[in-house]
Amino acid sequence: MKLIIKEQMREMAFPDTTSLTPTVQKLKTKGAQKGAQKRKRSTLDDSSTTREPSFWEHVDAQFPDSQASQTKQSLQKKKSVCVVNPSSTPTPTQYIPCIDHMPNVMKPYIEKIVNVDGDGYCGYRVVVENLGLGFDSYGLVRLALIKELTWKRNDYLGIFGGEDRLKFLIDSLYPPKEKTSIAPEEKWLTVPDMGHVIATLYNKVVVVLKHGNNFSETCFPLRGRPPTNPSTRIMCLGLIPKHFVHVFLRPGCPIPPTTPQWKKYKKPESQAWEDHFVARQCLFNELMDIEKGDQPPKETNKNDPILCDDDEEDMLKTT
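Request: output the structure for the sequence above.
Response:
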């Protein structure tokens, strides 16, 4: 019994001399311990020349088809576009059909020209296009013009020079007796006569452009005051050989001078129509003068001066 007690006391005092072994503790590999190992590994690799992957590369590696990757690619494309120098070659201007038949001074101010059927009613078809009516509504336009000339005949007798011309214009608006594919010439729209009627009936500024000098004119309404912004009421007809086209003008462009008939037969309240366009008509005249090559008046011959009455009296006194 004493030996057993002595042996137990010896083991407690000197555990290394016994056959007992300490319990093995298992290392933890989860949680922060794993991150620490990664940080330790990255610390050991600091001396390497390999570049640390960027944020986008990490995202692409985890989500190769993700929206973030697409966004990155689009940003790279936009950045590449910004640094490219613009081409020095100008964009070619689209050719406008029939523009060669327009006045040269007006060509820079024409946005587009719309052609219409050349069946003899082309002038009335341009009116339909401008009013935004149906393609075959030119018959309704002619009927409205007949009513205008019939009911307001006294307003047009003077401007047309009498009953004969007025009757001819009214008859031209009726359909031909014999149906043909092309209307006879006496049924065609004539300007500036019908330009005055169209302007007055539809409260429009009717501009007629024709190639050459002194052919283009503007017809204002013969009666009534203009709206707040009459510039939005322009209807432009381009006259090419035996055909009308619909011309779209740029805002603020020059316009031709007013017809002499309008100035003589207009109602007093309609004068405000022309007043609104005076500056633009003056610009048209200046451009036409340059186009025609008009020269300033020559200087008076100094050797043969023209004397006024006062100058003659002074010369008589000194002789």
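The beta strands are 110-114, 205-210, 217-219, 234-240, 243-249.
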